[in-house]
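It would be a great kindness if you could assist me with a short task in structural biology. I am sending you one protein, given as its amino acid sequence and as whole-number tokens for its backbone shapes. I would ask you to consider whether the tokens describe a fold that such a sequence might reasonably adopt. The full record is reproduced below for your convenience.
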Amino acid sequence: MKPTTLAPQKTKSRRKGFRRLVEFKGMRKLSLQQYQNHVRQMYDGPAGAVLALGSLISLHQPLVGHMLRRKVFDVTRFQNILDVGSGAGQILGHLLRETQPAVNLVAYDLSTQMLRRARARVKSDRPVFIAGDLMRLPFIDDVFDCVTCGWVLEHLPDPSPGLSELGRVLRPGGSLLLLTTEDTISGAFVSRTWKCRTYNRQKLKDTCDQAGLPWKEQLWFTPVHRFFKMGGILVEASKPGPNEER
């Protein structure tokens, strides 16, 4: 009789194979510049136009708001916040509602058209809108005490340069709210839809450690998400202060 442990192993192997079959692989076939141009064109076009609606349907946008209102990640601690990959303003809108008027907000995205959409949606003069590359942030070192980066990192073939840049502009003791797609079956469909990659939780944690952004806490949208281990990878990472060990 075969060991009973083989059945779960076969199931796990089949799921992994299915996930790899579904997941977007075009990133590996293009140069970085070609892929970035592809992503920019996608978000400038019709896909970007329906991004806000997609975020509502997937519940990502309301769940982020729920998380911030409950102070699972407490944005009221900060005075200078950079929202990387602002998209249609899904996180930016919540930041405007949950922070005081004196708090400085910078919305940053690769797509100028997405920034126009974000500006139109949030209807606020508070944020500064800047277009650019995550791997070349146009800011001095140690300028923000908070960075939010929601569903952006999966558009980098290698997350290390992007994480290093996020860490560079973050002040010692500052916090990073990182949300990204996990290597699950549902994550594979997200990857296929938005032409991006997924991340293994442990490998991403190790990469954040190497970039000087150790995870402070793993977060979940709701207790249901925690119980079923769904909703993607949500973490608070922190840049160690001068008296803290990396």
User: Anything to note?
Assistant: The first strand starts at residue 80 and ends at 84.
